[in-house]
Amino acid sequence: MWEDFKAQFILNFVDDGRWHYLANGLLVTLKLTFFSVLLGLVLGFCIAMIRNIHDNTGKLKIPNFLCNLYLTVIRGTPVVVQLMIIYFVIFGSVRIDKVLTAILAFGINSGAYQAEIFRSGIQSIPKGQMEAGRSLGFSYLQTMTRIIMPQAIKNVVPTLLNEVITLLKETSIAGYIALEDLTKGGDIIRSRTYSAFMPLIAVALIYLVMVRLLEFVAKKVERRLKKNEK
Amino acid sequence: MKKLITLITCAAMIMCLVGCGKSANGTAQAGVLVMATNAEFPPYEYHEGNAIVGIDAEIAAAIAEKMGCELKIEDIAFDAIIPEVTSGKADMGMAGMTVTEERMTNVDFSTTYAIARQVVIVAESSGITSLADLEGKTIGVQQGTTGDIYATDEFGDDHIERYAKGMEAVQALSQGKVDAVIIDNEPAKVFITENEGLIILDEAYADEEYAIAVKKGNTALLEQINKALEELKADGTLDAIVAKYISAE
Questions:
Q1: What is the Cα–Cα distance from B81 to B35, expressed in whole angstroms?
Q2: Is residue B153 located within the same domain as residue B191?
């Protein structure tokens, strides 16, 4: 039993330096997650602001329409289809760095979800605060940046970190465009050794450890943000 | 009365369990031969309408007929075929699969039923005219195929892009994302007729033979398959099926 386990372990991870597939894959997965979250943050924040300004003041009709269209399309289609459309259709005839393609796809996808998270954060602040700010002579933007946003962001941080965790796991479809992320790394080992157990369990464990780390960070951040509430 | 009904039900269930158990001819389910394949590999196996057709599909149907079984084809990823066979979810794997030593440690192979070669597809305008020109280029392959394994050994991981389907590797080639695709000869011929501007290099990359994979130690099934193959070879059915899909050059 133990001998068998050892032999399988050596076959799947040690022979031919196969663990490199997992190590390099993990690096790609982390890169994808990090930059996609950043892109998503920027997109999400801008969209949430545009929609909020439109809701409150009736301005920015066209940008608001475009934002709604974006949200409908992105949230209405599977991310794996979006990824393949970006790789095989939008960048149909150019040789583009695959990591960049995937970051674009995942970032644009995550942006839609982050926009809704930001919007719900802004809406969680009572309307009275905006009215109070305005009546004290602040402009709309000033009230937003100085009074509403600091509170809203604090409210959405846990949800945002949750989105990061979701995104980390979602990048596992990057193999569809022949990008060698963690999942694909395990798949390549599987296609060489024909054993299912070791590569798949190893990949699953690595994701689990990553997610637990993120959860740990999320808890720390949450506690930190709550400090001044007492 | 109630007891009698319970008894009958129990008996029926036991009968059913026995019926679904391992059959005499080595298939997991009596009377059904489950074949795992990757139906993106014309002319060996591909989707046409609702059915999976091709050389492998027809040979498998002929084998199933000889065994008195019904053929059931499952379409899965190529690199999942051997695990599917070893785990017993499928009785045999038949997908233009070349016999290699590594594969033989995991499954048993039937006698070979077709000869194939790995060829290189390139864009006509690329200036690649021989295998020597491939050095340093990016090569697209189907993950887990012999093309993938040989090319990874020869050119190194950094120069290989592994797609789930051969079709996608060819698509990447025609979009200029890779410089060449190494794939089996017959599908390659289909791919270049469907994609303008692609050619097959005259120089073959490797020669190999296809066989059917069955679970290790399942000699009952293997013997039946080999026997059926032999009969099909002898009566000319095998050649007729191949000729139907591959026009002589």
A1: 9
A2: yes
